[in-house]
Amino acid sequence: MPFRSAVSVFRSLTRPVAAGIAVVGILLIALSFLATVDWLRLSEARRLAGEAASAAALAAAKTPDAPYASARSAAKAVMGGAEIIVTTEQGKALPGPSGLAFIAGPGQVVRVTVSMTARSLLGTPVGLGETTVGAEAMASRAGVAALTERTTAVPELPAVPAAIEARLFGSAGALAADERVMLGRVAFRVADLVTELGHVLSTREGGTEAGVAAVAEASFKPAEFLSALAALYRESARTSAEAAKVLDVISRLAGAGATDEVPLPFAGVISLAGEDADLTLAAPLRPLEFIQAVMRARLAQGAVSVELRSPVTGVDEVTLTLESEGASASVLIGGENGLVGIPSIRIASRFVIGGLSIPGAGTLELPLEVKLSSGDARIRRIACGPNGPEVAVTGRPVRASVAFAAEATASPAGASDYVRLLAAGGLTAWGKGRSAFAEDPPVDLVFRPGTGDTVASLRAPIDFSNRLERLAAETQVLVSLEGTGREAMSEGGVRDEIARLIAGSVKPVEAVLSSVFATFGIVPGKMDVVAAGAACNTATLLGEAK
Predict the structure, then answer these.
(1) Distance between CA atoms of residues 371 and 377, nearest Å
(2) Where are its TM segments located (predicted)?
(3) Burial level of 307, CB count in 10 A (0-12/13-18/19+)?
């Protein structure tokens, strides 16, 4: 019905009126089309101007000696043959109430404005055929630095690293003492390792070329990591006896792994946040350091347990369960706020100590929990001045604590924080104790790569044997004597004997635990940082100025 009514009304109109309505309709359609075309043109012009301004600002920030020429060249590359006007200003950007406020003058911030003319089809008949479109962007000159965590130590007890490395790399994965020294003496470039891992990734993905970005985000099995490392020494092994020995050792480790190895994220071993060219800044990394970083990344995937029989005089048996809360890259190639370090590690251990002079009880169990808090070095600032880059780093050394470990065994009534030390012939003894280091404020380091000050240490006066001695001195012991236990020794005599044995076990226990730390390249209270290089060859876009 409505349609018929409309047709009826239209038929009743005179021909001139109907023609006028048709012309107006066609005109409206044409104007709508032209308006849409103008809007699309204007939107595209604004988009291109914004992209040109961003590219120009980045280019100008990278070349402070010729900001205008660099900005105009970068903007023209985006805009093609379009006529544009480019202006550059240098200064600094400060936080304002609604964004960044640009202040012209001295500073490393560049503000670039790009403007161009956009044509309007609708505006042409009335003399408004050209509209100026502009966009601005700010960028600051930024740097890229290469940092390496370099804390290594020699295990005191060879049996400890041998057991851990065999558990992580297979039965043939244990390093001999001379092999450990050799792997800590030579070095390789991270850039070369990334290239080799790129080949591994390409083969895995069917021949697709894998660049730095793909390697940085990929995961590799420990055997793949080590095979790539071995490949770096294959050429030099033909002419160098030492390189040939290094190749043999690394190849042995690579071939000793289990087939069900868990892939490890590359970013948990080496962090790459720079561009391809920045890899030339990579610190020379030693194979032993890389192997230790792979081992620490392995702990982040799952706990590892080992058992040792009489690793040192005074310890009959020890069980160690090691785990890490997360991975922390051993090498960083990137910019500000990047982090390298040693992740936190928890060691749940149970030492069986012989030599207890209590009738019916010849050994004592010490269930100890050791926690290593993460040591880290974070790039706080990369200043790009006229005298070259300056890298400011802040961080903390590795902290440590030791305590009697919590366990499911029932403690004496009203003393749930005690753990059982021995139970034999009606005699039961529990112990409680904890020794930790207070947190120190972060330490600030400043590197000027290229001037010789490339290595510095984050250190605090920590002696782990001191912590054990304090734990032994402050241990509280509860004793329960029942039945025949009452006839064997008095409660005071039991406490004195247990205290004597705990105090006497400090050195052998410290030797075992310190050897565990050294196996992973960790020394409590210490973390060395190497700044291999820095360059001010990048720039960062800043927020819009208000």
Answers:
(1) 19
(2) 17-37
(3) exposed
How far is residue 104 CA from its own chain's centroid?
37
Report the distance separating Cα 368 and Cα 108, nearest Å. Answer: 54
Cβ burial, residue 365 (10 Å; 0-12/13-18/19+): middle
Compute CA 358 distance to the chain's CA centroid, rounded to the nearest angstrom: 51
User: Do residues 399 and 345 lie in contact, with contact meaning Cβ atoms separated by under 8 Å?
Assistant: no
Q: What pairing do the DSSP bridges indicate for beta strands 109-119 and 130-149? A: antiparallel
Residue with tokens 């005109």: 27
Residue 224 DSSP SS3: helix
- Nearest-angstrom CA–CA distance, 39 and 63: 36
Confidence at residue 546, expressed as pLDDT on a 0 to 100 scale = 47
For strands 331-334 and 270-272, give the pairing: parallel
Enumerate the domain spans of the chain: 36-140, 145-539
Distance of CA 170 to the CA centre of its chain: 27
The two structure tokens encoding residue 449: 């790569």
Residue keyed to tokens 């071993």: 269
Going by the DSSP 8-state scheme, the letter that residue 121 receives in this structure is: T
DSSP 3-state percent helix, strand, coil across the chain (nearest 5): 40, 35, 25
Identity of residue 423: A
Between 21 and 431, the more confident residue is 431
Cβ-based neighbour number of residue 107 at 10 Å: 16
**Best CA proximity match to 38, nearest among 27, 46, 48:** 46
Tally of CA atoms within 13 A in the half-sphere of 104 that contains its CB: 5
Q: Going along 297-454, which residue ranges are E strands?
A: 304-312, 315-324, 331-334, 339-342, 345-358, 361-373, 375-385, 388-396, 399-404, 419-424, 427-432, 434-436, 443-447
Q: 267 and 335 in contact (C-beta within 8 Å)? A: no
Please identify which residue in the block is written with the tokens 């630095």: 145
State pLDDT tens for residues 272-313. Answer: 987 777 788 888 899 999 999 999 999 998 899 999 999 999
Question: Which tokens is 248 given?
Answer: 């043999």
**Cβ atoms < 10 Å from Cβ of 150:** 19
